[in-house]
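FAQ: What does a ligand-bound record look like?

Like this one, built around zinc ion:
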Amino acid sequence: MGYLFLRTFKFFSTAPSFKFNFHFLSVLILLSLSNPLFSMEEELSIIQKTEQNFELRLYARNFAQGEIIQIRIKPLKEGIFSEKFKLVADGKIVSLSPWKGEMIGFIPIHPERKPGSMIIELHSRKLYVNRKMKKYEIDIGATDFLVIKKQSIKLDKKFTQKKYDSKTLKFIEDCTKAKTIAFASSTPLQIKSGFQYPVSVVSFSSPFYVRRDYNEKKGRPHGGVDFRGKAGTPIFAVNDGKVVLAREMYFEGNFTIIDHGNKIFSFYMHQSKLLVKPGQKVKKGQKIGLIGSTGMSTGPHLHLGVKVADTLVHPLALLAFKDI
Ligand SMILES: [Zn+2]
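The answer part, i.e. the structure of the complex:
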């Protein structure tokens, strides 16, 4: 079965004025976005294909490592959603949710996934007229994550010492367990609109996936984005969801995890104060805590992390879906 290349153009342009060969255009887009790690760029790119019964659209800030693809299926005929259908990307099933008369899903691109072709398969008897499935191919670009080779960072001794006492070890173990349980939560999509920033004044201090080599030892990539902020600055939920964890942790400090449904989580570290409780439903923009420097932190800031389908992705890639 031949792969189909799709029409590509910028989301906010009124209409595509030129039709290009898809491959040529996808290269153009990757170059034009040039992967800004701290980008405030919120313009999305779209890849679109119109079939006889439906329209398939893929949105992303950047079709590249560490980003998120939003996939949407819009029916052009009644009844085509009456049968369940299956969407597979990179060999993994993507769960879809009803969304304003369409179906919506989110595909994480692991920061260490090899750049190149991604195959998206759509299996359905009703969507297609004379076939049961179709494959679509898109191009995933590379992202230049920052590596800081040497940097002397003073950390509290309790985080650098190799041996923990048994009480600390037990606490760390307990924290890990609580996190595993929280991220295992699985709820239907809970959001009703797009995402927003977790702070009112946005300024970044550390990008996603930067690798710092602490004291000349190879460090782990940074699993989120750090927002600057004074201790006590309010932190807001990036979208509606359910609090699945809100407690003190050894490394994360006062830590909150929000389940937005469909395996999308946002999490907030190092808070000076937690203002929500596990099990509580929160609304987009609701104050959930205050910025602090608890846990493994060198000064007050908010570390925001995002997980989609068990993959850590660039939080700003999720926040870019602000009008969905
Ligand atoms: Zn951080």
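Follow-up question: can I read anything off the structure? Yes, for example: The chain has a mean pLDDT of 85.
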